[in-house]
User: Fold this.
Amino acid sequence: MTRRIALFTATRAEYGLLRPVARALAAQDGTAPLWLVGGAHLSVTLGGTVSEIEADGEPVAARLQDTAPADDTPAAVARAAARTGAAVAEALVRLAPDALVVLGDRTELLGAATAAVCLGVPLVHLEGGHVTEGAIDDRIRHAVSKLADLHFTARPAYADRLLQLGEPADRVFVVGSTGVDDLRAAGPTDLAAASAALDWPLNPGVVLVAWHPETLSGRDAGADVRAVLAGVLAAAGERRLVLTGPNADVGREAVQAELERVAAAHPDRVRLYASLGRARWGKVLGAADALVGNSSAGVIEAPALGVPSVNAGDRQAGRLRLPGVIDCDVTAEGVAAALRQALDPAFRAGLSPDPLADGQAAKRIAATLATVDFGALARKPFVDRP
Assistant:
């Protein structure tokens, strides 16, 4: 009998990380993916990225309507998480999957995970064990880890943290990050391929910028991104700048307004994309001279490809750092200095791809989901450790 594995996605970020898992499940005998799609994917304001999922040929089993935040206030984000829980519950009752897979630390995951636990649907969590001290996501990630029945994480250090949370060792698997699976499968990229993907010549080079609000700092989200963009403009030389829209976090609207202002002020040099989509993102990242911002891609995907990354502020504080990641303050001067270092040919020449990012994480996950005894996961002990 085919095991039907539901995958929940509410944003472009975790969709790109889950897509390799869905494809591995589809390619493997005895498993099939079911996409539960909601949140920003179904919001025109937030990019309407369900169209990208459909363009990829992925089967959407359930559209979770009215699950995106109405605005970027804390109350709207909280209400969206609650609506997501209700919508996921309805989808799980209707589809009766064998398990639900969630990834990461977005607020929407609380609703989805709660629904699975209440309905007795085995919950599989990807990318637990990270620490991101500068975002509310940190608490959500650990909470979902405690709700989950099975864990797939990227590094031994992250697995150790899950064990510290009392998780049984036989339920925690170190598989690498799915974030680079697609990038590895696509093979080498270059400036010509990236230019063709965007239909915009990127000569003499490109800097990719991905900035999201810091949700725990109390900082002015608009002022922060204004400083980051000023630093990038000062240090990038004649390179093109590709900006991606922010996540649906508190403070999003202020960030979006600043991105739009800079793109309008420099139309020949700067372009803003609500969502690049996974294919274009991979091509631009692989060809970029540097990635600047505070996205997890800067500390996971960019280093895996040997692309220099400037990480500004505290949003990713606590994550492991690989060579090629340059941390700096959220000031124009700090960002400019860090970017100049990243753009130094000698700096990049000293980098090498992450050996743990071999592009096989999704296959490892799918193989385990094909054989694990889901029934035995219903009772999860808390393991006390010294």
Summary: The domain at 187-349 is CATH 3.40.50.2000 (Rossmann fold).
